[in-house]
Design brief:
Shape: globular
Largest sheet: 5 strands, mixed
Keywords: DNA-binding, Transcription, Transcription regulation
Organism: Nocardioides malaquae
CATH superfamily of the largest domain: SCP2 sterol-binding domain
Strand order of the largest sheet: 5-4-3-6-7
Protein name: Helix-turn-helix transcriptional regulator
Helix content: 25-40%
CATH class of the largest domain: Alpha Beta
Domain HTH hxlR-type: 14-112
CATH architecture of the largest domain: 2-Layer Sandwich
Number of helices: 8
Low-confidence stretches: 226-235
InterPro entries: HTH_HxlR, WH-like_DNA-bd_sf, WH_DNA-bd_sf
Radius of gyration: 19 Å
Number of strands: 7
């Protein structure tokens, strides 16, 4: 099959058109999305991007490497394990992913009942993150999410930091001191921060530590931007 011609080959000098030449193929931005929170092995990407075959993933990673959006790095130690990670320029695509997400939530055809991977839920939180109200000191929440799409999924841990200046959420295998810890499936946590379902209606979400701080995190990252009802959980 002949290769798809680029927009530039039609004498189109638009930068947006060139961006589509780089990331417009099916699955490309989904692969990028799965690398926005840090490097992953080939098998990790294939596991997290449901529906992509190994041949297609190999081609998309090759194309992204050729375009200097992704780079491959060999981890130190035994096993000679390679991981794929975004380049400094590639990480700039989080702004693109955020803009697409903010635009698409208005679509009447958005599959709102479909599940998300833990990374995708966290990226949605980052897309809507706002400065947190309350104490002037930084507050921290360990967020432990399990992929609800797979029965064999292992929990993934993130660290949310909140202040009056900003709210950030990053992948963090071993968070340091935290004010609260939340354990949930990606489906339940999505229902809370994207679907605005109050935590007390999601009994499978386990909260320990300061319930007030967890509520502040929800208020600072919820899609609606409106506080959900207060937690009744004891801190």
């Amino acid at each position: 099959m002949a290769a798809r011609r680029s927009y530039g080959s039609y004498n189109d000098g638009c930068a947006a058109a060139h961006a589509l030449d780089l990331i417009g193929e099916r699955w490309t931005m989904i692969v990028v999305r799965e690398l926005l929170l840090g490097p992953k092995r080939f098998s990790d990407i294939q596991r997290d991007v449901m529906g992509i075959g190994p041949a297609v993933l190999t081609q998309r990673l090759h194309d992204l490497e050729t375009a200097a959006i992704v780079q491959r790095r060999r981890l130190a130690g035994p096993g000679r394990i390679d991981v794929y990670e975004l380049t400094e320029w590639g990480y700039g695509l989080e702004a693109v992913n955020t803009a697409l997400s903010l635009w698409a939530v208005g679509s009447p055809a958005l599959p709102r009942e479909a599940d998300l991977s833990p990374d995708t839920v966290v990226l949605a939180m980052r897309a809507h993150a706002r400065a947190a109200s309350g104490s002037p000191d930084e507050r921290r929440v360990a967020l432990i999410l399990t992929d609800s799409r797979r029965n064999d999924a292992q929990p993934v841990t993130y660290l949310a930091r909140m202040s009056k200046q900003r709210t950030t959420i990053d992948r963090s295998p071993e968070p340091e001191r935290v004010d609260a810890e939340v354990s949930a499936t990606s489906r339940d946590w999505k229902a809370c921060v994207i679907g605005s379902v109050p935590l007390e209606q999601l009994p499978d979400i386990d909260v320990s530590g300061s319930a007030d701080v967890v509520q502040q995190l929800i208020n600072a990252t919820a899609l609606s931007g409106t506080p959900s009802s207060s937690l009744n959980t004891e801190a």
